[in-house]
Amino acid sequence: MDTFQQIINNVTGGDFIGKVIAAIIIVVMVAALSHLVVKWLRHIMRRDDNAIPQSSIFVNITRGIIWGLGICLILDSCFNVNMSALIAALGVGGIALSLGFQDTLSNLIGGVQISFMKIVQPGDNIQVGTSKGVVQDVTWRHATIKNRNGETVIIPNSVISKNAVIHLPPPERVTVPFLATTNNDLDVVSDAVAKTAHDTALEYSGLVEEPTVLFTEVTSEGLVGKVVLEIEDASQATPVSDAITRAIAPLVRG
After folding, report:
1. How many CB atoms lie within 10 A of CB 177?
2. What is the pTM of this model?
């Protein structure tokens, strides 16, 4: 660092304006380096054999480290700021700051934890509490998920790290539960429900997996069942579920 500072002094002649110009040049270099490193990191994260989740939290942490080092370099080399003393002062002040930013630190640590451990990754279909949807991104503060209604739900990382996370089937998979109270033969009911679900789903999207009807429980009210299928367009999952529910209702009632 002393050598670099000497170079800056030799170039600028110790002049304040010259130091400002040198600081601007360093800022441009740091910005270029940050851009290249982030671009390379995103490229690595998109590879199939990559072990790092495609979450923006890693990009933001990398960008923050590069800019932090760049600012330290500018202050020390161009403006003769004693970074060792400054870092020591920040370390003492950091104790007080941490008390005031407990939620922020909790979310940051939670985001790193759930990302490195791959508890939640972009593309996962999850449920946290009453919120469910497909994970869009995990940032330094929160995770964003999009539910079947197209609504974006923001969940703090600390909430995800402290609560049970349920990994749901892919959003293309549609499950419609029903209660059969009819006295007709179950095979006849199953075939009718499957055919109706098939024809109804095709009005909205192509099918990846044909409907399957399962009866799961016998109750005093009737037989609990569900029809399961997989469609091509995940955005149509809610309309398909609604349409199938309406269509099979007359078939399962006595």
Report:
1. 13
2. 0.57
